[in-house]
Amino acid sequence: MKRAAYILVRNPLSLTGVILIALVVFGALFADLIAPFPEHRGAVVDFANFNKPPEWPYLFGTDLVGRDLFSRILYAYRISLLLGVVVLAIAVPIGVTIGLVAGYVGGWVEYVLMRITDVFLSIPPLVLAMSMMGLLEPTLTNGMLAVTAMWWPWYTRLVYNLTRSEKEEGYVLAAEVIGASRAHTIFREILPNCVPSIVTKMTLDLGFVILIASSLSFLGLGVQPPTPDLGSMVADGAKYLPDSWWLTVFPGLAILVAVFGFNLLGDALRDILGVDQ
Amino acid sequence: MTGLLSLRNVSKVFTLGQREIRAVDDVSFDVVEGECLAIVGESGSGKSTIANMILGIYPPSMGTIAWRGDVLPARRELRHRRAIQLVQQNPLSSLNPRRSVGASLRLPLDVHGIGDRSHRADRVARLLEEVGLPADFMNRSPAALSGGQRQRVAIARALASESDLVVLDEPTSALDVLVQARVLKLLADLRDKRGLTYVFITHDLSVVRNIADRVAVFEKGCLRELGTTEAIFANPQHAYTRRLIAAVPVVADAEVALRNRLMENDDAAA
Amino acid sequence: MSAPTLRIADLGLGFRTWAGPVEVLHGISLHINKGERVALVGESGSGKSVTARIVLGLLQELKSARISGTVEFEGRDLDRLSARERHALRGTRMSMIFQDPTSSLNPVYRIAPQFHEVLKRAEPAISEAAARARAAALLSAVAIPEPERALDSYSFQLSGGMNQRVMIAMALANEPALLIADEPGTALDVTVQAQTLALMRDMVEEHHTSVLFISHNLGVVREFADRVYVIYKGRIVEHATAEGLFADPRHPYTRALLSAVPRITGGGIPEIEDVSEDYFQPLVVHEGCGEPEGAA
């Protein structure tokens, strides 16, 4: 703990990341309390206050139907974070397990698992997600499904490489000499040594999942209105640039803050957990 | 003399692409119960390959390894794994940095079902005591231990399964000389107390001189010379053995005299 | 009389870490006269390797390191030199040999261009052909049988012993005044280590190179050094000629260290404390090795 604090204090960028993400998470969790107009998350129309530039009480201005952008951004964060957490909660265990097994067992198991992984990796992520969304209904659930499908192979690659190098460590030999089972060696000996790298990558990825999800909804393939979403907010506002600049700039900045924040936080965690690059 | 462990015409061939490398070439010897047999050689001598075959990491390509007269199969039973244990050179890597000392020591107890479950923590404490470490070390991570302390934990782990034979693979060469002396002392004491048999793999002949009963000298996968420690150092038969002894950096005049005497024989022969 | 090649006076080193400041060197002093082979011997964590790194000017740029005291190289205070001037000294007037020869050479290049780079440090205009000729001569001086073939090889195609010879030839190529050898050959087999040490000794004797020899191995020190400093936890505890030290070790720590070395003549493993208050007793200096040459 003391060491973590020391590293953060010595590195202002890492500290920035921690603060940014703390604010984002806090805003998303307590949106109901913080948002000035919590009802604006839904299909509310207030033509008296439509398309207003930033002014009190509309911190970031209002959209074309008069909803407070600040409130909508807080709720959009909530959905983005939920999306990111769910995607990683499914993709990481799958990817990690395949990577561990392929790296440790070797032989034809390794060959088959890694070729499947390579096929997924060879498809550009956005294209894969778009084609899946094209086949399925463009709903939030399917959005998550699509992003998950393209996310697990990255963890397989990471953990596969880690496992191959950890396998050479003396403690793996020690477990084998003692006669421990393969499952023990893989999940109790090797996996704990991969955790710091996995956690670091997950933090970085939360930012990227938010970015990809925003890209999908920017293209109209993700979260559907009236649910607030940063990507669709940017897309809707883009038609009214540069006059109604706040419609795009604030949601855009919100994406930037989250992605940038998770990147900095990932770097900080890498330092704190002592992950080799 | 019947061997606790007998190697008969053991060879090991590795294939590297098109090439075949004969790491161990037709080697036969016995390890006698209760002795410390040193296996000495430089890189490429095949000493590590022999250690790995004794441990059952991989089987010999040709020949047999027998334990108390039973030929060991390629896939060993758990009871044979239990009997033959290992202490590695580098304790930093041989202990899992993400598991506590206690967890590492418990593993052999769990795998081999030694003692009943509720008493295993006591067993771990006793093992730590036996290697001269306080019992509360079981809660520490290996990173919080010095090199010598880590090696003591590794030794305790090799004893945990109530092994009969311990392969010591350069157990002190990563340690400072003062720590080395204490770890060697501990190994000697444990052997007396538990009646252990050691196969001591090393390149350091000065250590061998002071801990081994017999010495097997390997070069390029072949057994060059095997004899009692006294005989090997008093009158080494093979030129390679003499070269190895002469290359040891020494600190006392008596040692220089021994070295010079050995080299004179060679110069005279040449 | 000329200044000693290296003079270190009251050198202190501390690091700032998350657990607070850590003192690594508690004011050590040593000197090396021209053509002298001086060993700094100690266990891991004694501060011997960081001392070498300070002399090479490699720790001065580190933000978390705090260095006090003076280091004079050929009469010039390293503190007064800029980072660029210190950099210019490395590989020309000062050179180094590290523990593992194979990892010290770049596996992506053949030996010849790496040798060219080394020679360019002292003579920037040297042509490839001239460098090659010089390199071949230097390699044959370190008893490499086919220098031309070695020059066209990659480090991984040569044995550890050959790489060590290449490293020695490179380190001495620009006729440095000071050679810093940090545990040379520790990664090699004993027979190869013995050969390369003998070779290194001949080479520095021939070139009158001063050597700072860093080692944990007392046997190796005995074979190589003229004079020895024993270092324990950042303090020099004994300073003697090599002969004097091994015949008559006086500091409790040196005595413990020496008696802990197993003998090839036998005698068993001695009972020795690995930590003791006695090891912190003050410095013992043997007669005949006090002040550096040229000191007022």
Task: Report on the architecture of this protein.
The complex is a heterotrimer of chains A (277), B (270) and C (296). The mean pLDDT of chain A is 86. Helix content of chain A is 74%, strand content 0%. Chain A has one domain: MetI-like fold (Orthogonal Bundle). With 270 residues, chain B is of the alpha/beta class. Chain B folds into 2 domains: 232 residues, P-loop containing nucleotide triphosphate hydrolases (Rossmann fold, 3-Layer(aba) Sandwich), CATH 3.40.50.300; 36 residues. A 6-stranded mixed β-sheet of chain B has the order 6-7-8-3-9-10, sandwiched between helices. Chain C has 296 residues and is of the alpha/beta class. Chain C has a domain of 204 residues: Rossmann fold (3-Layer(aba) Sandwich). In chain C, the strands form 2 sheets. Chain C has a 7-stranded mixed β-sheet, sandwiched between helices. Chain C is globular. Classes of the chains: A mainly alpha (277), B alpha/beta (270), C alpha/beta (296). Chains in contact: A-B, A-C, B-C. Chains A and C meet through helix 1 of A and loops of C.
Widest sheet: strand ordering of chain C: 6-7-8-3-9-10-11
**Residues in helix, % of chain C:** 25-40%
Whole-angstrom Rg of chain C: 20 Å
Our count of domains of chain B comes out at: 2
Low-pLDDT residue intervals, each spanning 5 or more residues of chain C = none
Mean pLDDT of chain B: 92
**Major pleated sheet of chain B:** 6 strands, mixed
The CATH topology name of the domain at 6-101 and 178-285 in chain C reads: Rossmann fold
Structural class of chain C: alpha/beta
Biggest protein-protein interface? B-C, 37 and 35 residues
Number of helices of chain B: 11
Measured as a percent range, the helix fraction of chain B is 40-55%
The N- and C-terminal alpha carbons of chain C lie at a distance of 11 Å
